[in-house]
Amino acid sequence: MLKEIYHNLTTLRFALMIILLPVLFMVNALIYSLGGDGYTTQINDYNRRVTENRKHIVEYADQSLAELALIGPGELPKRPSRLIFCAGGVDEVVSRSIKMRSDGTISRGRGVPDEDYKWRIPLKLAYKVESAGTTPTRRVKINWVFIGILMSFFAILFTFDAIAEERSRGTLSLMMSNTISRGQVLLGKYLGAFVTLMVPLIVSILMNLLIIVLSRNIPFGASEWLRILGMVGLFALLISTFIFLGLFFSSRVSNAITSLVWLLLTWVFLAFVFPSLLGTFVGNLNPIPSVDEISMRRQAQLDQIDDEWREEATPKLKKAPSIEYPSRTRAWAEYFTAIGDTEKQIADQHIDQQLRQVQLARDLTQISPIATFQYAMEGLANTSIVGYVDFVKQARRYRQTFIDFVKTEDQGDPESLHIYPVREGLSQKPVDPDAVPVFEERISYRSVLTQVGLLVLFNLLFFIMAQVSFLVGDIK
Q1: Is the four-CA dihedral 258, 263, 268, 274 of positive or negative sign?
Q2: Is-contact 46 79, C-beta < 8 A?
Q3: Rounded CA separation 431/429 (Å)
Q4: What gap in Å lies between CA 40 and CA 122, rounded to an integer?
Q5: What is the tens place of the pLDDT at every residue in 31-80?
Q6: Could you tell me which residues come within 8 angstroms of residue 94 by beta carbon, excluding any fewer than 6 positions away?
Q7: E strands, 22-72, where?
Q8: What is the DSSP letter of 271?
Q9: Quick one: the chain helix, strand, coil %, rounded to 5?
Q10: 335 near 437, Cβ under 8 Å?
């Protein structure tokens, strides 16, 4: 092992690595701790949204429970990850908040042909998915995931000639003429490459964290330090995987150049070609309806509801709802509920279809160890698609919690008709803003275990391939 480490330290590739790694990690630290794309910008935006949302709740709670119930609690912001500098994930392509609101005031458009009655569409969740951008001008994010991909490249640079070069020079047969076994040779080359790669990586990571800690812009707690330690473990698993892959190819061919060509082709395929092809395949397999198609479908269903109510219940909807006429108000509540259920179903189904497509593409691309490493890093950083799906589910549960709160609060007003979701059917008295339930995001990291297990399996698979190939291969 020591011989392998000494040999690696004297190569040009090692010099390139020890120059490039610290530079990339320092640039990463400066961008995300001091620059405009970092945690500071995101947390300031998050705090601003929380403050505005609180003002929104106080404003409408002071008016009446009915007004608050119909306007909704406002925006549900997603707390930014302190480890955004490690993995950007879906935080770069989705909105960091979900709006729980009414679609606004409507008059004369539906329901009441002879009165200028204004009403609000019942609450729904408004999701926004932003474009990630696929143009050549899109800036590369220098985060830990990007550096991890680079480390996998360095792993093949340090192993492509580990066996093939010694075989072509004849030093391998000389080495095997001693009492040393093939397994010991393979282990020594593996450990030599692993230590050569991991030590500069760990030193660069410590430099990165030192800059971030000294900047005091990203506060770290025990949870963040544990997750960073887990990320270092992910780096080790990825590097180990590609070392074994490099040793496999190096043991299969007769010269180092052939080994390097095969390894480069394999690396490019696993890092870029394969994920892109699978993403395109999944997108064509189950295309997502466009915004215009969704809007047309929504309008058609709402028009159908209007037609049904005009034909079957026109007498009930000729007059606007009123506190003095409970039966008329209940009819409007049924009408609003039908509209609200349709709005909720269309919005939820659309985002669910988008998220399922992204999740399917990511599940399929996990056949690549590089993709698996990326998703595991995003999981620990809380920027993964799984984390965003959990956020959406929590927002939906909060929607129901808010509605249940409104109904419970309304029961305490004897003057109310207790008819939801009609303004005239709910309490017209103010409500204590502090009593309104607050949305709290809960984070789970259980999904990371799957990626860790896959990386371990990749290591076992490539280790067996390298071991068998070297044991049965010719040493001359």
Answers
A1: positive
A2: yes
A3: 7
A4: 36
A5: 888 765 678 888 888 899 899 999 999 999 999 999 899 888 888 888 88
A6: 128, 129, 130, 388
A7: none
A8: I
A9: 70, 5, 25
A10: no
